[in-house]
Amino acid sequence: MSSPERRSWRSQSALALGLAFAAGGALVGVVAVLAGPIPAALFCALGALAAAGIGAWLVEPVDERLNLLTQRVVRETGQTEQPVGVDRLAILEHALNSLLIALARARRHLRRHQALEDAIFASSLGGLVVTGNKGLIRAINPAVRELLPLVPEPLGKRPIEAIPFTPLARALEDAVEHGEVVEREAVSGRFDLVLRAVPLGESGGAIAVIVDITSAKRAERARSDFVANVSHELRTPITSILGYAETLLGDPDSLDPDVKDMLEVVLRNAQRLSNLFNDLLELSRIEARQGDLPLETVPLLEPLEEVIDRHLDAALSKDVTLELDVAPDLAGTINPEAFGHIIGNLVDNGIKYVEPGGKVRVRALREAGAVVVEVDDNGPGIDARHHSRIFERFYRVDAGRSRAVGGTGLGLAIVKHLCRATHAQISVRSVLGRGTTFRVELPPAA
User: Fold this and answer.
1) Which of 101, 143, 317, 397 has its CA 20 to 30 A from that of 112?
2) Please, what are the domains in the chain?
3) What is the mean pLDDT of the chain?
């Protein structure tokens, strides 16, 4: 506050004091009329006292508030007490100037931040749609118009009205309703899209990110077709090699020992190639399949017994014990063929990696309202750093050991894809040196 402003405040205080004296004088005059002949000095004294009382009554509240404000400014600026001899109005003036400077700085920062957000929002290659707490569109970026049908004026409308594309509207609604991230794939005309809707918390709205994965899908289909075609073409010569090697080894006594050893190597590696091509073809068929597999709710005892029977010879040849633990009346929602492949691949994995004399157990149970099938073994276990990647194709925890036991690196990738196609959830628990447990949680009954 400048010196003229301080003088103005003091003038206002003086004016209040003058009015107090005037009011006091008027009060004494009235008393004089009523009281009659009383000495003038007495009336002057009474007038002064009245004026002083009224002046204090007017000025004290202002003075008290000024004191409180000054004390607060002193505290907020980190001082322990008000400096002696410093004008309180000067302190308030400095605080006000500092506040105005900070406010201007905050406004500049907000404008820069808003400009940056606007630039990112507008230049994003993915589509962005933001809804408010009433479910109406608050913001939309140009990329949406390239990917989805859009009305001329979309702001302020419901998503289904502004963007007639049902999967997007449902994703936004589900994200808000359930308070969790929703991610789905959808097709819009010639585009393959991923829709990811994220709730915005207390604001009640959501933001949807729309990503064009058309090129990635096309490349994936081309790769899958190539692998399937190559695998199919190579199956015939591999089958011939297997057949001739088995025929020659059918009469081992007639073979030179070195020739016999070489034929056994040929047979073993041809079998590995045959297993690899079979897994590649199986994975290609799964990936090429459109939509989910049909499900039915059936007792789990019979399909699990079939899995055990199929792997009994392999287990006996390695001196591995197979155990099955399932209640006869326990039912689960499965696709029988896919379920057999899922559990079969997990059992096969266990037999390959446990040491002779080891054990592989399959058990089915109801847990927290869900039906769960677990395949556990007492093999070498898997280090925690590999858990997130073991379902990738061709990923091997121990490449040398995997080849030695005849693994193709595709078994768990097939399991993951089949679980996805049947709405099952696959997870792994393992401690190095203490075995592994694969857990398959089946979907709820329809």
Assistant:
1) 143
2) 3-93 (no CATH), 124-212 (3.30.450.20), 217-288 (1.10.287), 296-441 (3.30.565.10)
3) 79
